[in-house]
Amino acid sequence: MQYVKLGSTGLDVSRICLGGMSYGEPFRGTHEWTLGEDAARPLIEQALDSGINFFDTANIYSDGSGEEIVGRALRDFADRDEIVLATKVHGRMRPGPNGGGLSRKAIMTEIDRSLTRLGTDYVDLYYVHRWDPHTPIEETMEALHDLVRAGKVRYLGASSMYAWQFSKAQYTAAAHGWTRFVVMQNHYNLIYREEEREMLPLCADQGVGVLPWSPLARGRLTRDWGTVTERSTGDVYGSTLYQEGYRGVVEAVARIAAERGVRRAQVALAWLLHQDTVTAPVIGASKPGHLEDAVAAVELTLSDKELAELERPYIPHPVSGH
What we know:
TIM Barrel, globular, alpha/beta, eight-stranded parallel beta sheet
């Protein structure tokens, strides 16, 4: 495993981050396809054994049970000081007023609940899961800064918003002497590259790390075009991200993987790892082979010709994932 600095910080993270959305009690929340604790724990242990030290989850995953499963596994299998643990705030966790969003009240409530579920005194990285148009950005950034000062959070991150929104948040924090975001976790993969227009250049200019979510496009980059899986049939949100027009990219991945004698996931992840702005893709793993492919991708070097072949079929698409 290779390790790099997280953005412009001094924090070392593995070049692969294990995402926690695949883990949680099935039928809690909106993800019926998640793995329960017995199935999830061996995968988290395998990730640790492979050198992955970076783990990502969110309060909203499977109605909080995702954090519980990840937290218990890491307590049993890892030294807390050797891992980098991230979670998120924004999504609605309960009905009624103040049950979601990025108000001061919501942030202060949800960090304590996340820490309890994770079984830790702090998280290394705390994300705003999305932009909250109903809360002043000053309120959000000051509340997040206070969590850093209180020692509950080490670093701050943001996820999937427009570049002007991210820039506004960073400027607001700097103007007040508050903690700024050090990473952007955004929607970025071979069949969704709209982030290259504004967000990625902004992150490069500001020294912000990039941690792409859905790096394999919900698995579409790993299988023949049109193939249906159990997850794809039940992933309502995922069905809104990818429509027609991606076949050429999927076929290019398959072609290069066949020529190299490697799995398609390795090629698609290796392409991301070749992008200068990318720190670590956030992968989902529901089978041991998913982790094996991700680790192998770190060592897979693609030629300039192969990179161009992968990129050539891309067709611009409407912004999605926000």
